[in-house]
């Protein structure tokens, strides 16, 4: 059996299927600005869309947002939870997707990818060989070798300020040294995730317990996301 498995066509298909099956009204491009709780116990969410302000009312609210965004919403209602959420550190990262011509590559790497320890002082922190990892992707583009490189650790925010072309140049250079000469990429895309990775430092488990205890005093409000149990 293969070492890893996924969804044919990408995990985005799973999210799309769940959204379609839910029958819910889904608003994209919408930012929650504030929460309020009425005397009758109903929640109101003040939001902003591309078309202007919007207020939604609901019996219950689930906050599936980054910790720093939840902190702003909860501070007026559960100050302790808001303060603890705001204190969770986050690392920013960028994902560099590269496509190489199989015909031009001197040698194609085997395996699923590699990790780079911080002590090595490299720009890259990981690379995932997508064409090897996901059989459906290899079959969809048999003439290409597609991989994804990751950059950006905690404390490396300045790295993410580099232009896309420079990040691609550094990634390709380090990939050639680590995996062999692949030639120049025929396509490249840089995707940046500002504060996208919450950091689980010493005491994080206790912090999450305090957050859940404080937020749990609010009626019909749930918390979920990567900032809590991973």
Automatic annotation (TrEMBL):
UniProt GO MF annotations: oxidoreductase activity
InterPro entries, A to Z: FAD/NAD-bd_sf, Zeta_carotene_desat/Oxidored
Domain of life assignment: Bacteria
Protein name per Swiss-Prot or TrEMBL: Protoporphyrinogen oxidase
